Amino acid sequence: MSVYFVSDLHLKPERPDLTRAFLHFLHTIQEDADSLFLLGDIFEAWIGDDAPTPGLESLITQLKSLSDNGCKIFFQHGNRDFLVGESFMQMIGATLLPEITTEHLPVGDAVILHGDQLCTDDQEYMQFRSLVRDSAWQQEFLSKSLEERLSIARQLRDTSKQRTTEKSDYITDVNPHTVKQTLDDSKVTLMIHGHTHRPAIHEIDLNGQQAKRIVLGDWDQLGWYLKVDSDGFDLISFEIKKAAD
User: Fold this and answer.
1) What is the CATH architecture of 2-239?
2) Containing H/E element for 204?
3) 3-state SS of 142-162?
4) Phi, psi of 80 (to 5 degrees)
5) What are the strands, taking DSSP E only, across 21-99?
6) pLDDT digit string (tens) for 144-177?
7) I need a labelling partner for 182 at 20 to 30 A (CA). Which of 103, 114, 118, 138 fits?
8) What is the Cα 94 distance to its own chain's centre?
9) Is residue 105 within a helix (H) or strand (E), and if so which, with residue range?
């Protein structure tokens, strides 16, 4: 049996090809998957469990079917979908994980996270992250009408995209010291995350030990996933076809 990881699909109505590709991926792993980890930014935006992204009905059904058939599904918040809550978890049969967690895998223990908390050089983003992860801010946001929430989410998304284009690559990537500190704190030598859209397997010298940081890719022209089993791990990409709708 295998454990699968995906992140940064950024599902949205304007990209039905991404939803189709994810549905196909779920179908292909259903006989083999022991666990599926959804490491954040699965959705381009999420304004509350009472207003799920349009066009997700088939995806919700497929995830719930996967869960009902014995695959354990886990979800971590990303910087786009940090308002996903327990109601949606029940809909898809998943468990909501803490933002940083250590999990036992066939290759040993690994620290798992979305990855945005590693980008500590981006002080502007870290301040924003602290604001929107605050429970009082979230409660106030969720108390607004759907129209107000949509407007705020659109503004936040547009501002974020503009700010990102203005920043150097090293600012928006992970901070090496924060990576090592997180590995040290977790007492493991394997880290798995997404967020940066820079898929790779990095070798790290961790106090004389060899450690690895596996970065998942975002879904656009290619889809990315990590497969872990008793033989090791593979970071795999595949072409996403834009069929006519």
Assistant:
1) 4-Layer Sandwich (3.60)
2) strand 200-206
3) HCCCHHHHHHHHHHHHHHHHH
4) -100, -30
5) 33-38, 72-75, 94-96
6) 999 999 999 888 888 877 877 777 887 889 999 9
7) 138
8) 14
9) strand 100-105
